[in-house]
TrEMBL record:
Function recorded in the entry: Putative odorant or sperm cell receptor.
Keyword vocabulary terms for this entry: Cell membrane, G-protein coupled receptor, Membrane, Olfaction, Receptor, Sensory transduction, Transducer, Transmembrane, Transmembrane helix
Pfam families: 7tm_4
Gene behind the chain: LOC118899677
PANTHER family linked: OLFACTORY RECEPTOR
MF-aspect GO terms: G protein-coupled receptor activity; olfactory receptor activity
GO cellular component: plasma membrane
Protein name: Olfactory receptor 145-like isoform X1
Length: 312
């Protein structure tokens, strides 16, 4: 028996997908299938590499390990269903399936925003307070911080899910998106948005604003510290340590803010879809590439792992 929303006549939704142009469906299917394969292989490889190499068992790589896990998970929540829209006449998802996808998407994406801020703080301690790094970022500190990251993700996902539960979906079940997301579902509802839209703006504002403020403060202090380093080599090493993280943060928070922190009336869905592509598909694919190609420790670990396999 299909689950139906309370006070609603909708048992399922139709995801419109990325585009209605038929000639683009197959090329886009293979393009995003390729993206997803790179995401899966890249993130699982980074997870495996960190797990197998003891010299990477440090706080920085502990958080990078979890970042790769989160990227793999929320890309898997979104991409397979999106791929179906390119090869099926109607990409149907049940009400329960839609709410489940929304919950796990929000859980992982909010967790990512906070773990990126934790990684910025880790860089701050590494560069600005290296003598107390071991004590400041000990396992007894890192594990509760990580637990807090996932608790924040769970709490935010539950808050949005509760708000979604008060909406009534009438005859309109066509979601103008490639996934079940908050704003596209608001467009389908025949309930007033006087509660939901302010909640979305405030909660997402906190989820983007607090991590962004933490990151900006951390990097302002890092920059100040780097500029006081007399040697060119020391400055170069400091900038190199932070550059990968800055690129990832800019892509992730920039696209997320563009999607959610504008009133829906000012944001047509096509630009929103493009913005969503960045933080749901492109960023999880680029993260392992950025962190591995610009990281000497990861390169060394990869060479050692490959040499061991070749020897065996």
């Amino acid at each position: 028996m299909r689950t139906v929303a309370e006070n609603s006549s909708v048992a399922e939704f139709i995801l419109e997908g990325l585009t209605n142009q038929q000639e683009l469906q197959i090329p886009l299917f293979f393009l995003f299938l390729g993206f997803y394969m790179v995401t899966v292989v890249g993130n699982l490889s980074l997870i495996t590499l960190i797990g197998l190499n003891s010299h990477l068992h440090t706080p920085m790589y502990f958080f990078l390990y979890n970042l790769s896990f989160i990227d793999f998970c929320y890309s898997t929540v979104i991409t397979p269903k999106m791929l179906m829209s390119f090869v099926s006449t109607k990409n149907i998802i049940s009400y329960a399936g839609c709410m489940t996808q929304l919950f796990f998407f929000l859980f992982f994406v909010v967790s990512e925003s906070f773990i990126l801020s934790v990684m910025a703080y880790d860089h701050y301690v590494t560069i600005c307070n290296p003598l107390v790094y071991t004590a400041t970022m000990s396992p007894q500190v890192c594990l509760p911080i990580l637990l807090g990251v996932y608790v924040m993700g769970f709490a935010r996902a539950m808050a949005h899910r509760a708000c979604m539960g008060r909406l009534t979906f009438c005859a309109n079940n066509l979601v103008d998106h490639f996934m079940c997301d908050i704003l596209p579902l608001h467009e389908c509802s025949c309930t007033s948005m006087y509660v939901n839209e302010p909640v979305v703006f405030v909660v997402v504002g906190i989820d983007i604003g607090v991590p962004t403020a933490t990151i900006f403060i951390s990097y302002a202090l890092i920059l100040s510290s780097i500029l006081h380093i007399s040697s060119t080599e020391g400055r170069s090493k400091g900038f190199s340590t932070c550059s990968s993280h800055i690129i990832v943060v800019s892509l992730f928070f920039g696209s997320g803010a563009f999607m959610y922190l504008k009133p829906s009336s000012l944001l047509p869905m096509n630009p929103a879809k493009v913005s969503s592509l960045f933080y749901t598909i492109v960023v999880p694919m680029l993260n392992p590439l950025i962190y591995s190609l610009r990281n000497k420790d990861v390169k060394i670990a990869l060479k050692k792992t490959l040499s061991k396999k070749s020897f065996c």
